[in-house]
Design goal:
Layout lengths: L4 H9 L6 H9 L9 H9 L2 H11 L13 H25 L11 H19 L4 H13 L3 H12 L2 H10 L3 H9 L3 H11 L4 H9 L11 H13 L8 H13 L4 H18 L1
Length: 278
């Protein structure tokens, strides 16, 4: 089985703009998340009932670690900060725009969504103990870094190769290696192309492209990329907090000169919350 990378790029270029409300929210972040007008952000989100309901549903998921129910958007922004709220808005917009079934990756859409949220929760809860600003910036990117898999899935479905692709994913050493074998790039690089298409945060575009091992990378981005690499190694569409994935992620943490025990404590807590929900 082979896939045409040019067809994937063409599919991205044909995607419509993100919704009006997403563009309004995006404009509020033009000067950085720390300078967002909170009242305008809350008002913008609350103007879209479906978006508001989605954010509250996701923010109350067990892996984010709050024991009491969060009942309003203003409460969610106060407790989680503007960075993660940005990620939730963009995540909702992407899934609303790219209608895709991720069966080619041998998982359900609900499972895929849960994995993305676990990646974000791991980034936020683990790395905030090391560098709070860094963690706040990367948590929304961790939530949406797998978006390229939606585009790949659409192409696989169109080609009628779902079973063949899913079997290849199951047998591959990693999804990224398998994607490269098929179309010479990875879904992370495609995520970068998506963000580029929608004129989103340029640094996010560079980081996403850098997550592709054949495009790695500008030195100043390495810390960001290495941190996200830990997260996607620990929890991904093939492996969710397994003994093997946690061991491999722990080795990356150690290479970064960080405390492995601190990482494992957070990872195992999120794993347990996810399992209790299932």
């Amino acid at each position: 089985m082979t896939m045409d990378f040019k067809a994937i790029v063409a599919d991205i270029n044909e995607l419509p703009p993100l919704s009006d409300i997403t563009r309004v929210v995006n404009s509020l972040y033009e000067n950085g998340a720390e300078n967002v007008n909170i009242l305008k952000l809350v008002k913008a989100i609350e103007s879209d009932a479906a978006l508001s309901a989605n954010i509250l549903h996701m923010i109350n998921a067990p892996y984010y670690g709050f024991s009491r129910k969060i009942a309003s958007i203003s409460q969610a922004v106060t407790l989680f900060g503007t960075n993660l709220i940005y990620g939730l808005v963009i995540n909702y917009a992407i899934h609303s725009t790219i209608k895709a079934n991720v069966r080619p990756y041998a998982i359900s859409n609900d499972r895929f969504n849960a994995i993305c949220h676990m990646q974000s929760a791991l980034m936020s809860q683990w790395y905030s103990k090391i560098d709070l600003h860094h963690a706040q910036y990367l948590a929304p990117l961790a939530l949406i870094m797998e978006s390229g898999k939606l585009v790949v899935s659409r192409e696989v479905v169109k080609a009628g190769k779902i079973k063949e692709f899913a079997e290849g994913i199951k047998n591959a050493e990693s999804t990224t290696i398998y994607e490269h074998e098929l179309f010479g790039s990875s879904s992370y690089y495609i995520s970068g192309l998506l963000f580029e298409h929608w004129n989103m945060e340029p640094l996010y575009v560079d980081i996403l492209k850098g997550l592709d091992y054949e495009h790695k990378s500008v030195d100043k981005l390495n810390e960001y990329i290495n941190t996200l690499d830990v997260v996607r190694t620990a929890v991904n569409v093939k492996d969710v907090f397994s003994e093997k994935s946690l061991q491999e992620a722990s080795e990356l943490v150690e290479e970064m000169g960080l405390m492995v025990d601190d990482f494992l404590k957070v990872a195992k807590r999120i794993k347990e919350k996810n399992e209790s929900k299932s």
